[in-house]
Amino acid sequence: MKDRAAEYLRDEQAGGLALLLAAAVALLWVNVGSASGYEAFWTTEVQIGVTEDLQHWVNDGLMAVFFFLISLEVKREIVRGELRHPKSAALPILAALGGVVVPALVYLALVADGEASRGWGIPMATDAAFAIGILAVLGDRVPVGAKLFLVTLAVVDDVVAICVIAVVYTSDLAPAWLALAGVGLAVVWGLFRTDVIRPWVYVLPVLVVWVATLESGVHATLAGVALALLIPARGMQGHDTMELLEDRLHPFSSFVILPAFALANAGIALGGGALDDSDGRSVAVAVAVALVVGKFVGVAGASLLALRFRIGRLPLGVDRRSLLGLAALAGIGFTVSLFIAPLAFTDQALLNGAKTGVLAASVMAAIIGVAILAPGGRHPSRARVEMDAWDEKR
């Protein structure tokens, strides 16, 4: 289990750097290269059964795999991982809930009415890959247990974001298509129940589920969530299905899906545009403040309250200073925040403002988090901390 956790975190670190590189390429493409060329490329229509432009194939297709993987990780943690243990799970879960509610309230306090108010879901998420990539740069200045705390917090954030997408950012429903998606899910469930392990058998029903969900008005990525929940925790024919799928999909998600998403969505003109429009400027400021200030207050406040009332416990090697640094890094909302932005806004000025706010907040949150964590000095290895804890018990 520890080897898998270490491998997972290494993928997250490298994936965070890949994500950052892809975002930088998108920004350079628009601001140094050709903004019209960027738009023309991502609006190119491609027909694969259904017709979508390239950006939608990334956002509706590839990101369904990303949300499938996130949901699978949550299920595994609940069944077998840290979320099985109430004390260990309580602190990052409560921290995540504080980091969801407070930023939404801060956003609404700054943008209270009109279409701009629909963006309250944008500052709710924490980008695990990006944040872990920042922690990787700090090396042993980051305490033992910090990465797992941040990953757990980000996963819970993503679960809440998925629920918000399903309830708030879903268009008019088409019952017939929704029913067809339900039939496809029932077929997949039946195949799992009968221990069918040949991957090609699942291709057709999974495609039916995805297309039907896309046409139903529910966002297509939620097909990935529903499919993940059907994966049997017991394993199939001696194979650990959840672990196998995670091992196969995690590198693909980290090094293909998320960089492709950043490349398709982070192309924003920084020389003006969004900030020249008063409404776009208001959204940019609201998103940035909600992520940088709201996330910090929400995560740190909920964590300190949980510790004060002994509801949860600090992870291995994490002190309160480190907790504040992690609360600051939680303001890096990149991937899911950029994903929610076009669901919230159809007005281009508001959308550009939201994306600008997300990018600015992610940079500021990273700088603040590093400034808090870096002066904390070197931290002992996991083995040293565990040995000290054992000696104290004696």
**What is the N-to-C succession of helices and strands?**
HHEEHHHHHHHHHHHHH
Summarize model confidence as the mean pLDDT: 84
Order of adjacent strands in the largest pleated sheet: 1-2
- Which value, in Å, is the CA radius of gyration? 21 Å
Low-confidence stretches: 381-394
Roughly what percent helix? over 70%
Let me know the largest β-sheet.
Answer: 2 strands, antiparallel
Q: What sort of overall outline do the alpha carbons produce when their principal axes are compared?
A: globular
What is the name of the CATH class? Mainly Alpha
Q: How much of the residues is beta strand, in percent?
A: under 5%
DSSP, total strands: 2
Provide a count of the helices: 15
Distance between the termini: 26 Å
Find the CATH superfamily: Na+/H+ antiporter like domain
CATH architecture: Up-down Bundle
Q: Give the tally of structural domains.
A: 1
Q: Kindly identify the CATH topology.
A: Na+/H+ antiporter like fold
- Structural class of the secondary structure composition? mainly alpha
